[in-house]
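Example record used in the benchmark description.
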Amino acid sequence: MAIRKSVVLSALLPDAETDDALYEWGLARLAERDVRVAETYIPFDRAAERRRCLEEHGMEHIYLGALYQKRNGIHLCATEEKERQRALAETGLCLDAAAASGSGTILLTSGRLPKKKENLPRALRALKDSLKQICARAAEKNLAVTLEPGDTAVQAFQLIGSTDDALALMEALRESCPNLSLTMDTSHTVQLGEDIEEALRSARPFCRHVHLANCILKKEHPLYGDRHPLFTDPDGEISPAKMQYVTNWLKQQYHDEELTLSFEIICQKGDNRTFMERVLEEEDWFFRY
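Model output (structure tokens):
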């Protein structure tokens, strides 16, 4: 079994995006807990310096291009060709930054659902064309590409959401995109109304990366949607016991295969360091498995 522990550091330390000292502190704390994979979005002009920092801490890196995509309205599935070309160009900048930072993998999303349902087939064709180009460019840079399905009716409104849709896409691109895989997220699975184990079992042929994340689906709640609250949040949909159960279940499922297993908890406000220390203490079980 080769399960690699990872942490979405951009979620725990959002201020580290522009604070080099905080970024280095976060990596050091992860290394102390025997974590060897960090997942962050790195601003393009910081890629080379962050590579040095990652290497100094012996850390592999997954570049969170999805964060940049969502933040800037970049949709690889855009039905308007001008918009799709912009998405390709902007995603290309993420590829360049990922390579410059020494990342082995870049995580991306499909983009939002089209406003009109009749445009769904067109959006899917656009996404397939985009991914073929992105995967080819990524291969030239020795980058793997992992696509993360998202919710379709809660917050992100992604084209690729359900596990069935994700699997159909992967089957269609199996030959043309050999460096493409799936990142499954437990929060997104719950938001889609799917059973976690069933979804992960179905996705296993194409999935080598899982995010353990929580969500709140009470519409009046300030953290409603895909805001990845603490596992211990009483309003969360997935209990700490369930998270640990899923982790142990995945260890059994992937007993002879590689899997990068990560948790994603977002610091919503307050001091980032204090929040990360709290999470490291609360989720001690994750670092001991």
